[in-house]
Every structure is written in structure tokens, then in C-alpha cells.
């Protein structure tokens, strides 16, 4: 194998990694915007109200579910074949969920309490 092959392979991995990181932040941002923010002139509040209690309305209530749907077009666009797209889809949704959990002001799980007996 030539040095050019290794250089191209490394460039492809770096491109994929950069796409994954930027895509994950984008998925988190759009999901957070649709799920939790009011937006200018309360446009996202109105959108959530308009969607009501149907499938799409309930979808905006669940950050985890919504991140899967938001990640799908990013994965399709950024991936170059079916397997990479599938992995990117789940990975970017998972990264968005982790970003959401790290950015919350209140932890989801209360700290452990220990008692001496």
C-alpha cells in the first residue's frame, strides 16, 4: 500500500469525524429548538401548539424521539453508503442526547445518598 492510500484514508476519516461532530451539534441545536425553545415571536410555541396531541405533537414532547427524526436527514446527507448512514443516524442522535443531558441545569438523576448504619 502506498503512502497516498494512507493519506487519503486518513483524510476520509477526518472528514467523517468532522462531519459527525458538526452534524451532532446541529442535530442537538435543531432538536432543542423544536423541543424546548420559544423562538422569535413565539414561533416554536405556536408550532408545538398547532401540532397538538397527534403524532407530531407528541414527537416534539420527547427530546430523545425528536433527535432520531432530526438526525435522519443529516445522516443521509453526510453518509456515503447505507451502513455509514445508519451508524451516523444513531450516533448523531445519541450525541445530541448526551449534549442535552450535559447542558441541563438540573441533573436528571438525583445524587446518591449514603447513610451510615
Q: The biggest beta sheet, please?
A: none
Q: Count all strands and give the number.
A: 0
* Helix coverage percent: over 70%
Beta-strand percent range: under 5%
Order of helices and strands: HHHHH
Q: What is the radius of gyration computed over CA atoms, rounded to a whole number of angstroms?
A: 19 Å
Distance between the termini: 65 Å
Shape: globular
How many domains make up the 3D coordinates? Answer: 1
Question: How would you describe this structure in keywords?
Answer:
117 residues
In words, what does this structure look like?
The chain is an all-alpha fold and 117 residues long. It has one domain. The protein has five helices and no strands. It has helices at residues 3-36, 43-51, 55-61, 63-78, 82-103. Helix 1 (3-36) crosses helix 5, helix 2 (43-51) packs across helix 3 (55-61) and helix 4 (63-78) runs antiparallel to helix 5 (82-103). The radius of gyration is 19 Å and the shape is globular.
Provide the fold topology.
Blueprint: H1 3-36, H2 43-51, H3 55-61, H4 63-78, H5 82-103
Summarize the structure in short.
The chain contains five helices and no strands. With 117 residues, it is mainly alpha-helical.
Amino acid at each position: 500500500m502506498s503512502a497516498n492510500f494512507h493519506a487519503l484514508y486518513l483524510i476520509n476519516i477526518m472528514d467523517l469525524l468532522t462531519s459527525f461532530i458538526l452534524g451532532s451539534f446541529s442535530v442537538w441545536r435543531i432538536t432543542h429548538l423544536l423541543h424546548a425553545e420559544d423562538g422569535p415571536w413565539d414561533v416554536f410555541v405556536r408550532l408545538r401548539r398547532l401540532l397538538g396531541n397527534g403524532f407530531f405533537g407528541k414527537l416534539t414532547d420527547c427530546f430523545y424521539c425528536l433527535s432520531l427524526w432530526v438526525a435522519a436527514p443529516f445522516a443521509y446527507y453526510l453518509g456515503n453508503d447505507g451502513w455509514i448512514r445508519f451508524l451516523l443516524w444513531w450516533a448523531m442522535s445519541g450525541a445530541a442526547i448526551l449534549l442535552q443531558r450535559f447542558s441541563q441545569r438540573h441533573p436528571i438523576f438525583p445524587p446518591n445518598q449514603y447513610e451510615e448504619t
